[in-house]
Amino acid sequence: MKLKICLSLTFLMATLSFAQQKKTEKSKFNQELATSLGADKYGMKAYTIVMLTTGSAKIEDKAKMGELMKGHMTNIGKLSDEGKIIVAGPFLEKNKENYRGMFIFNTKSKEEAESWVKTDPAVAAGIFSYEIFPWYGSAALPLYLKHHDEISKETP
């Protein structure tokens, strides 16, 4: 019984030691990549988040609303292609703040982010309003976009 406990404890300690070693091992730092992404010493950078909220416009015409939402999606694609927007998407549930969706813009300037969000036809028409917040996140965040086309069968 003691041998079994001793072997179990030895195995557990070896496993924990290996896990700690893996945790402390750092992947090879890539200065060129960090510089190209604008990373600070922590691998992070400033972005701007825009929270889209329910706007004041009430458009009952379904064709007009469809046209505005198509323009909204086209504008997101354009801003993404230009490297300005790196995250965009709707919220899946209603919430008390009336947040409808969000953008993460690749800028630390609230003014620049606002100029970009104003190019959205749904914002211009009052379907969406917005709130702007500075945000600090991984400088590698934009890299996921290059793989998105590989995993999506259709464009919304």
UniProtKB/TrEMBL annotation:
> Boundaries of each YCII-related domain copy?
63-135
Stated name of the protein: YCII-related domain-containing protein
Q: Does the keyword Cell wall biogenesis/degradation apply?
A: no
Q: Does the keyword Amino-acid biosynthesis apply?
A: no
**A Pfam family per the record:** YCII
Q: Which Gene3D superfamilies match?
A: Dimeric alpha+beta barrel
Write down the InterPro entries for this protein, in alphabetical order: Dimeric_a/b-barrel, YCII
Signal sequence extent: 1-19
Q: Which UniProt keywords apply?
A: Signal
Family in the record: Belongs to the YciI family.
